[in-house]
Write a structure and sequence with these properties.
With about 700 residues, the chain is α/β, with parallel strands linked by helices. The protein has five domains: about 240 residues, no CATH class; about 70 residues, no CATH class; about 100 residues, no CATH class; about 190 residues, no CATH class; about 70 residues. It has 17 helices and 36 strands. The strands form six sheets. Strands 15, 17, 19, 20, 22, 24, 26, 28, 30, 31, 33 and 34 form a twelve-stranded mixed β-sheet that branches. The protein has an eleven-stranded mixed β-sheet with strand order 14-16-18-21-23-25-27-29-32-35-36, with no helix packed on it. Helix 3 packs parallel to helix 4. The longest helix is centred in the C-terminal third of the chain and has 35 residues. The two termini are about 55 Å apart.
Length: about 700
């Protein structure tokens, strides 16, 4: 890019925003002739520029008559391999839903023809993708937000007909759905005259086991309902926790001359004090108790026993005892699969990992019962010594399980796997992911690509490629193959890669051993032995066991490296790099560039936005296409800025941890090992035992463990 080119385009009458897009395109070496026309506004220019950056055929949408938001959907579709050219005349919202529907392999065209709007189509599409049939509840008058609540209810197996009413707003629907989800009696508040805030207070009270009849009247505002609910909750907690202490009238008892009956403040206990030689009979004691209205829980044997002992001296004893109410058992789930599979493999006596005998996931079959809900039970009422009945608090119901891949039976208690796959319970959410199970993978069986998890029961041969969207578990050995996963990779027997194996995972990488392989993990790498490998970990590298060693190759980890031995006696070159990496620096630089870019773009949009606000009154500008575009773009850029600021903060936290990174060697750190930490180098001149290598006073130091 040179100043002559810039002056050329400035002379063509482009405004500040258009010139910024042209300037950015020239800086990136793009063919800006695709959008250097005054017929394009700067939003359209940006979409064409992004298409050129992605190497797309921008001729499909680089047309002035196609608005920028439609261009955006066509551009994204091209990148995803979806052709929207036949639907270019539709609004951007429709194009977005068609694009997403094609990716999700569902058909929404019939609903478009029926006249549903984009926000409604969003929920219809998600329902089709998640196999949640909301067609019985489809009414064009429902807003997208209302359809969302219906869809969520159907997905969770709830009776959405309870709230799929045209007179309920989406927020009211949400409160009823949440009530059904938490198994409370929603009929108490599922009435259109309640505001959603009132519904919320009644729902919360029901969830807390309170008697909401005290405040459910529509005459109370939501604020008043909340105040009453919190007061009732506080009172219930005091009673449950025993904050109301038993207060005995001991002073009065001491002053008694012959016989006195004292009743505790909570009326759960009655005591009799007998002075020595009072000569009272059992019948007289019973009359005294009756006089004090003690009629329940009288301890006949205690009275008889203490009457005899009172002849020897003053006696004070428990003569009657009430029964406290018992809270009902809470609802609970009974699971028919292992829910407590440890994330950390079993450790052998020598500290190494037992990969072979570790279970990493649980598998279920379609139609299998995976969970049954047992409802909460009512409590058992109590009674005070004066005969007053005390109501019991019932057990609390559990929230309905959420997740994917299962069905809820008609009894609303039994959960059944809808499909076969890998099951996991996390934070009250069950997920059944597609699982491809194969015996072995070789050149003859071909490469594997699967939109889920892959479980290889045998070995993986040389020259094959396996790609899993989620986890990849290999029971046997891996030769010179390429394994890629969007989750964790576990190779139970290990890798003999001959310098050709490539293992890449978004999650952790685990294996018994790795030889002659390239390993890259966004998280950590864990093994019992590593030789001649190139390892890059976004977090840590841990080699376990008293024989755990890193010999030869490179090991780079942001948060540090732990092993029993590093290097060998033969002096095989072993490079260890910990702390701030080149990739991290590049990400930080990229984040800084993006942040400045967003700041610059936002300044342009905000300037244009304010200018239009000054030029036109609200009644005019609110109907202007340009104003609405600028308003939307300003909002989007502001959000992008916020996200980038958060991303920059995360990178700063990561750097802070990287600055504290260290290498811990429990056995021998062999001579010749090269260590790099945050740009500094150190080579072990001699072998040392049981040491930690870390930064100290801006130098690499070696310290005894």
């Amino acid at each position: 890019m040179n100043s002559q080119q810039i002056r050329k385009y400035e002379a063509m009458g482009f405004d500040k925003g258009q010139m910024e897009e042209i300037r950015q395109g020239l800086e990136k070496g793009l063919d800006v002739s695709w959008y250097t026309s005054v017929k394009y506004d700067w939003f359209q220019m940006e979409e064409i520029k992004k298409g050129l950056e992605w190497g797309l055929n921008v001729s499909v949408y680089a047309k002035p008559e196609i608005s920028y938001d439609r261009m955006r959907q066509i551009r994204k579709a091209l990148k995803e391999g979806v052709d929207l050219s036949r639907h270019q005349e539709l609004e951007a919202g429709f194009l977005r839903q068609i694009r997403k529907a094609k990716i999700g392999h569902v058909d929404i065209f019939s609903y478009i023809e029926e006249g549903y709007e984009p926000d409604q189509l969003e929920e219809i599409r998600l329902g089709l993708e998640h196999k949640a049939d909301i067609t019985p509840y489809l009414i064009k008058e429902f807003l997208g937000e209302s359809l969302r609540e219906i869809r969520l209810g159907v997905e969770e197996g709830l009776d959405a007909s309870v709230y799929a009413k045209i007179y309920f707003g989406w927020q009211q629907m949400r409160e009823i759905r949440l009530g059904l989800e938490r198994r409370v009696d929603v009929t108490i508040y599922a009435r259109e005259l309640y505001r959603w805030q009132q519904m919320r207070e009644i729902r919360l009270g029901l969830e807390e086991g309170l008697d909401v009849s005290a405040y459910k009247s529509m005459m109370y505002s939501a604020k008043e309902m909340k105040r009453m609910r919190l007061k009732m909750k506080e009172q219930a907690e005091r009673e449950q926790n025993g904050d109301i202490q038993i207060e005995l009238l001991e002073e009065q008892a001491r002053q008694a001359t012959e016989c006195m009956v004292t009743v505790s403040q909570d009326k759960m206990e009655a005591y009799v004090t007998l002075e020595k030689g009072s000569g009272k009979t059992k019948n007289e004691i019973m009359r005294l108790l009756a006089k004090e209205n003690v009629v329940f829980g009288i301890l006949q044997k205690e009275i008889e026993k203490n009457l005899e002992e009172a002849e020897q001296g003053t006696k004070r004893f428990l003569a009657a005892q009430g029964t406290r109410p018992e809270r009902g058992r809470d609802g609970y789930y009974e699971f028919f699969f292992r829910t407590g599979i440890p994330q950390i493999p079993a450790i052998r006596k020598d500290g190494s990992i037992d990969y072979q005998n570790t279970v990493y996931f649980e598998q279920v079959q379609a139609g299998q019962v995976i969970a049954v809900y047992h409802e909460a039970q009512p409590g058992i009422g109590g009674r005070t010594v004066d005969g007053t009945e005390l109501p019991a608090q019932g057990g609390q119901e559990k929230q309905m399980l959420k997740g994917r891949g299962f069905l809820l039976s008609q009894d609303k208690k039994t959960y059944i796997a809808r499909e076969s796959g890998k099951i996991e319970l996390k934070n009250n959410e069950i997920t059944i992911q597609p699982l491809l199970v194969v015996n072995e993978v070789t050149i003859s069986t071909g490469n594997l690509r699967f939109n889920g998890s892959i479980w290889v029961r045998g070995n993986v041969g040389s020259g094959v490629v396996i790609q899993a969207k989620d986890e990849l578990i290999v029971e046997g050995n891996v030769e010179s193959a390429r394994l890629q996963s969007g989750g964790r990779i576990v190779i139970k027997n290990g890798v003999s890669g001959g310098g050709m194996a490539v293992i890449e995972a978004a999650g952790e990488i685990h294996g018994k051993f790795f030889e002659g392989a390239s390993l890259t993990s966004n998280e950590g790498i864990y093994a019992n032995y590593v030789m001649n490998c190139n390892m890059i970990a976004g977090k840590e590298i841990v080699i376990s066991g008293t024989r755990g060693a890193i010999i030869g190759g490179t090991a780079a980890a942001v948060n540090g490296v732990k092993a029993h031995h590093i290097g060998n006696r033969a002096g095989l070159l072993t490079n260890i790099s910990i702390g701030v990496s080149k990739a991290m620096i590049e990400k930080e630089e990229e984040a800084e560039i993006k942040l400045k870019k967003f700041q610059s773009e936002l300044a342009i949009f905000e300037e244009a936005y304010k200018k239009l606000q000054k030029q036109y009154p609200p009644e005019v500008r609110n109907g202007m296409d340009l104003y609405l575009k600028v308003e939307q773009a300003t909002y989007i850029k502001r959000k992008q800025m916020e996200q980038q600021v958060e991303r920059t903060r995360e990178l700063e936290e990561k750097r802070s941890k990287a600055n504290e990174a260290k290498m811990v060697v429990y056995g021998i750190l062999n001579a010749g090992t090269v260590v790099q930490m945050n740009g500094m180098h150190w080579t072990a001149a001699s072998s040392v035992k049981n040491v930690t290598v870390r930064l100290s006073n801006k130098e690499i130091g070696v310290f005894r463990n």
